[in-house]
Amino acid sequence: MRMFDTDQADGIRRMAPPRPVRVLAVSSGKGGVGKTNVAVNLGVSLSELGRQVVLLDADLGLANVDVLLGLQPQFNLSHVLSGERTLDEILIEGPSGLKIVPASSGIQRMSELTTAEQAAVIRAFGEMNQNIDVLLVDTAAGISGGVVNFARACQDIVLVVCDEPTSLTDAYAFIKLLHRDYGVHRFQILPNMVQDYQQGRALFSRLCRVTDRYLDVTLDLLGVVPDDEHVKKAVQRQTPVVIAYPHSKAAQAFRSLAQKLDAQPISGQSSGRLEFFVERMIQYNRAAAL
After folding, report:
1. Could you tell me which residues come within 8 angstroms of residue 181 by beta carbon, excluding any fewer than 6 positions away?
2. What kind and span of H or E run contains 48?
3. Which SS3 state, helix, strand or coil, does residue 92 take?
4. Residue 1 to residue 235: CA distance in whole angstroms
5. Is Aminoacyl-tRNA synthetase among the key words of this record (predicted)?
6. How many helices and strands in the chain, by DSSP H and E?
7. Phi first, then psi: what are they for 61, rounded to 5°?
8. How far is CA 37 from CA 27, 175, 242, in A?
């Protein structure tokens, strides 16, 4: 009887329409702007809203999501690539039910994947047996081929910037490359570590002035995250600031960002399917190989 019930349930799941999944890249033109910290705290905040969230550490050479959370994964993406483990088997659970796909820190091989190997990693997502509402993709910084392929396969891109000339310059280069070469025309901008909303808004306006002049893109101000000493203390404790210091200004900002993202409609271009992300990654990597 139990076997019949299980088979019947599996059949119902196969008949059910695909569950909409929001696939969101968290990227930056340069390192040192707090991108991974943003991804982690957004992931936890979305989980606290009752969403099933998976955070993919897509910095395949210098992974640090697990370090920020004080986790020690036994397996990582390199084991998926070698065929030793499935994606479900390497998932680790973080705070508030957030699930993490760990990458491999310090393994040079993982930062030099061929296009076919990158596609194999992403194809593994099609075999996941997880109910997912949100897939957050924490890309590496910069505009390498791997970063670009991850970012443009996502429905939306959150581009993290800070009040440094190189941050804005590199953010513009990131936007220009994805728009000019790959047709991406919409970016959500997130000023991080700013004094207040006014400073964040000013950063956003400076970036808009340049893109409005030279590019046909749409930039949206997602929100701002203030410079908060509690963030540094939370990093030292290897705990997300939304948990370590839930009443801090930064924690409140991350919760507001999560609520705003959660309220946004899922991009119609992808039909909300996780498989669409997989298919796009395979398509882009094949094109790059050719």
Report:
1. none
2. helix 35-48
3. strand
4. 50
5. no
6. 13, 9
7. -115, -30
8. 11, 21, 11
- Classify residue 206 as exposed, middle or buried by CB count within 10 Å of its CB (0-12, 13-18, 19+): middle
SS3 54: strand
- Residue 165: count of CB within 10 angstroms of its CB: 8
- Looking up tokens 């939306």 gives 156
Distance CA 101, CA 83 (A): 15
DSSP letters along 56-81, please? EEE-SSS--HHHHTT---S--HHHHH
What are the pLDDT tens digits along the chain (290 aa)? 334 344 443 443 444 445 678 989 999 999 999 999 999 999 999 999 999 999 998 887 677 898 899 998 999 888 887 888 888 899 999 999 999 998 876 666 666 667 676 666 666 776 676 788 999 999 989 888 778 888 888 889 999 999 999 999 999 999 999 999 989 999 999 999 999 999 999 999 999 999 999 999 999 999 999 999 999 999 999 999 999 999 999 999 999 999 999 999 886 544 445 556 666 655 655 566 55
CA angle (278, 279, 284) in 5-degree steps: 100
Distance CA 231, CA 241 (A): 6
Residue type, 284: Y
The closest of 200, 216, 213 to 168, measured between CA atoms, is: 200
CATH number of this structure's domain 21-289, picked from the four choices 3.20.20.70, 3.10.180.10, 3.60.15.10, 3.40.50.300: 3.40.50.300
The residues, any chain, with a CB within 8 Å of residue 106's CB and separated by 6 or more, are: 61, 62
Enter the tokens of residue 4: 């019949």
Q: Are the C-beta atoms of residues 112 and 281 closer than 8 Å to each other?
A: no
